[in-house]
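Below is one such protein, fold included:
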Amino acid sequence: MRNPFKMRASEKIESDVNFINLYSPEILNKILENSLEIPLWSNTSIFVSSPGGGKTSLLRLLSPTILQHIYNRKDTEYKEIYNILNNLDVLNESGCKRFGVYYLCSRGFSLLEDSDVFNPSQSKRYFFALLNARLILTTLQSILLSYDTDYTDLDKISFTPNYIPKDIYQLDIPCSGKELFEWAEKIESEICEMLDSFDPQDYKINGHDTIFAFKFLDANSFTYNGEKICEDFIFQLDDFHKLTVKQREYFKNEIIESRNNATVWVAERLEGFTIDELLYDTNIKRRDYNYIQIENLVETRSSAQKKFYTAIADKRARLSTEQIDSFKEYLEEEYIFENGDNFEKAYNSLLEIICSNELYNSYSVWVDIINKFESIKTKSVYLRAIKLHIEREEKKRYLFRLDKTKEEFDNFMKPEILKICDSFLRAEYNIPLYFNFDTLVQLASNNVEQFIGMAGDLFDNILLNKIKKPSNLKLSCQDQHTIILKYANQKYNDILNLPNGRYVKNLLDKLIQFAKENTFDDGSSYRTVTGFAVLEEHKKDLFENNTSWYNLDRYKILAETIKTCIAYNVFESRVITQGEKNQKWSVFYFNRWICVFANIPLNYGGWRKISLNELNKNLIK
């Protein structure tokens, strides 16, 4: 394959070997660290992320066939990932200690919520029965996969459970895998037939009182050809958000109340969360189960983050038929035209602006210092810093202004000021800003699919260079900037396809304008503004006492719009302590591709409060 970056979602990578070769185990390391505080086994873990966060890849890694491949090559090419899985207590020298029992939830369960057909009690009992049946069928399928066989060998499975729920009827226990399969298949068939019929009320189906499958299907109760299979099953429910709100609530209540020793991993997108859960991150949802947000596992701007994405990129590059071993080596790291036309234009423009300012004479010493620098780029950045300082000074009402000294120059021209001025300069004078591997990692916003999408577009052009200029395959900073800008523009155009897409676009347009005004106003801040926090300025009346803003009718559309932005990774939500009495703010930062679209630097840290009424204004156009 010429461009392996085009292989995106885990479920689309058919070969187990390709999947393992592409998988970067850094997430596993972070889960291992987490497990030291909160146990992964004999516990319920809920993994959440926006689309493309890596939930399904994590679950697939623990499938019996993948684990068998890793075990078989544990001393050679899969040694690193084997060691991590060994530390996680998944694999050992004898083989699999535990493996995944994978079930993909579907929206078909929603048919059980039809209030015109079923009363609440029936809906709940049928949901439990159908889920129990499918978990039994999936468990048997996983056992067969672990032995590389099929349903013809169900008789080789023996099942002798220690726990027999009261909903088990017409099944003699102990039983064979085939008998258990037929029992569960009958329940599934009856419920599906009922749902497909014209009159479901004609069917007399009891349903189940509880979700008993996790406790009932204890791995120690199964043997295959008389041999123990493994110590534990990892029950995996993927796409959990596709269940209805009530069904998710039933499930979580069952898990909390039953408190059995089963290992249950639930994977869901943030879109399944309520507005309360998304906007205010409390400890309530963590109290009864292990809650893990995939995007937060690898810390932003850390060495671990860079290592993680470097591994992803290089593993994919090496799979290419074009013999490219290292992705980042083909990205130009520094803009080489430091004395080029773009910086020359910036320098002349800034010098003219500063010289025409009434405060110019006060800064003549500073300008003289700058003109002694050799690089036109360096001169331009320092001039941009002087412009920033002048506009800040103009806001101060001094009776007398003294000339600026060399000592003041040295005190002001700190690395952080020069860095932000370099970014401003590039954004304002059309000089490449978004290039090199470190920037690409930032632009991923901790979303694997987003990283692979941008890297794939860059890789296409690296391959094109092999044809156009084989003597220099490196992708120039200008080309990288152009490609990433094109990606961001496409992402912006795709916003209308999101739920509440029109409102999301209107809100984003307003916030981009807000961010640019606050970023490029030199007199207001030395920070790039790439985030906002809601300022609750409304007065609560008698009927709104202690009601959060997002539960008020007049902000309903705004709340749903922000929920969509968080769920689909348009905004990154963080809780920040600032102000009097350590007040906590829910700050919403732009996904980094929005910074590219808006042509503003990628820095975090700069955010502003914005009123609810201001956000609500012009939301509906």
